[in-house]
Design brief:
Elements lengths: L6 H21 L25 E2 H19 L7 H18 L10 E2 L5 E2 L11 H18 L2 H20 L13 E3 L1 H20 L4 H19 L9 E3 L8 H4 E2 L1 H18 L2 H18 L11 E2 L13 H9 L3 E2 H17 L5 H17 L13 E2 L18 H16 L3
Antiparallel strand pairs: 1-2, 2-3, 4-5, 6-7, 8-9
Length: about 425
């Protein structure tokens, strides 16, 4: 960052926000009886609406608590590292005992005690491979930090199960499955991150398959850059494999937050590979996502926009995914903003800290984010995560009826790590 950026001040700000605003809320949500974490709360955090456990969120919780254990050991945060790791391990064992069906796929939703439940009546238990992905990421990070070989083997087994489904084209992605004739950016995006997390754990253990999984990560990165990143640096959220669908809302829409989040995955892998071409592309995509998605009227990143800017448009096909795009495009969600903060800081660090546009976007995003999302009542804490276009809280469900700590805590933890690594 430029001379106006005070690294020490920023580091202290993010560290205190994690320790004082976020963690007190989530410490109270840990299930000490069965293992795992409760994440079904109202948007403002005042009401626990269910004791059900989404496997998706449980895997994310394992990643967070494992990383916090590692950070506490390194002195980056105050806290009991062994308690974090013990609770993460209890969640892994909860998932091992209850989260995997006879098919080898992960159940998407569990009762408090681990009994599988149908998230959509009549659709079965394994409704989304994304649940498996977050379980792999959580178990991988737990294995890396704890050194537990059994957890690593289990994560690798789950990864192989995901790969088999992707190769056969049998993966499911409720509640918004991709219609036939379209290919989703979300698949190589999540798989890049999954492979990165698993590869890091395999490398730490000196595992024989570490190079293979690291190679998978590079391949997913290249697929994103060659298939989904367009010549103008927009990221097509859905590519029309069937050209007759290219004029539809789904093929035309962009998800600025997804594009920005994906680019820090790309930046991280490009750094490992020494790929300056990928770094340049990721920076350009990030800037383009802001150009397309930033709301000049109210501030903040819009949920969805059209590939030519503004409200999503195009031919409608009567799909649930499409309805979500059309009905929620104006909302301001917590996760794109926390992801953007880390992406911008990482991009800046990797490009010499002299890009005035990255600096401008970071200051713009930070000011909006912390003026909009944090819960103002310190007795509650956390963030009021879902907002309307003007920034007012909403009570509606977006994707899942959960208040998930993942994006905020993950990004702020990574920011603290990044700032701590930079010159004093």
């Amino acid at each position: 960052m430029q001379a106006t950026f005070d690294r020490k001040k920023e580091l202290l700000f993010y560290k205190e926000h994690v320790e004082k605003q976020l963690l007190p809320f989530w410490h109270k949500a840990v299930d000490e009886r069965y293992g795992g974490m409760f994440t079904c709360f109202s948007n403002d955090g005042t009401v626990q609406v269910s004791r059900d456990k989404y496997t998706w969120s449980q895997g994310r919780y394992v990643w967070l608590w494992s990383r916090l254990a590692d950070c506490c050991r390194r002195g980056l945060f105050e806290g009991d590292a062994e308690r974090y790791l013990r609770q993460a391990g209890e969640a892994v064992r909860f998932l091992q005992a209850h989260g995997v069906l006879e098919s080898g796929n992960c159940a998407f939703l569990l009762a408090e005690d681990g009994t599988p439940k149908e998230p959509i009546a009549g659709k079965g238990y394994d409704t989304s491979f994304f649940a498996d992905c977050f379980v792999v990421m959580g178990a991988s990070e737990y294995a890396r930090v704890s050194g537990e070989a059994e957890a690593l083997a289990w994560a690798l087994e789950r990864y192989d199960s995901i790969r088999r489904r992707l190769e056969a084209g049998t993966q499911r992605s409720e509640p918004y499955p991709t219609p036939a004739g379209l290919e989703a950016h979300s698949v190589p995006m999540i798989m890049l991150n999954v492979a990165q997390e698993l590869a890091a754990a395999l490398e730490a253990a000196g595992h024989s398959r570490a190079g293979e999984v690291r190679g998978d990560a590079a391949a997913y990165m290249d697929r994103i850059l060659t298939v989904f990143v367009q010549p103008d640096y927009t990221v097509a959220e859905l590519v029309a494999v069937d050209e007759r669908l290219d004029d539809t809302v789904l093929a035309r829409h962009l998800n600025p937050g997804h594009a920005i989040e994906c680019m820090w995955f790309v930046l991280a892998e490009a750094k490992r590979l020494g790929r300056t071409d990928a770094v340049k592309a990721a920076v350009n995509v990030t800037k383009k996502a802001f150009a397309m998605g930033w709301d000049e009227q109210y501030g903040g990143l819009l949920h969805y926009v059209d590939r030519e800017g503004g409200a999503p448009q195009g031919r409608e096909i009567g799909d649930g995914f499409e309805r979500n795009v059309v009905e929620t495009w104006e909302t301001k969600l917590w996760w794109p903003h926390s992801e953007a903060l880390y992406t911008l800081l990482l991009a800046d660090a990797m490009t010499g800290c002299d890009d005035a546009e990255l600096h401008r976007l970071y200051e713009l995003t930070q000011a909006y984010t912390f003026a909009t999302f944090p819960q103002p009542d310190p007795a509650i804490g956390e963030w009021i995560q879902i907002r309307d276009r003007a920034g007012e809280p909403l009570t509606k469900v977006v994707a899942l009826p959960v208040k998930d700590p993942y994006h905020i805590l993950r990004n702020l933890i990574l920011i603290v790590e990044l700032l701590n690594e930079q010159p004093k």
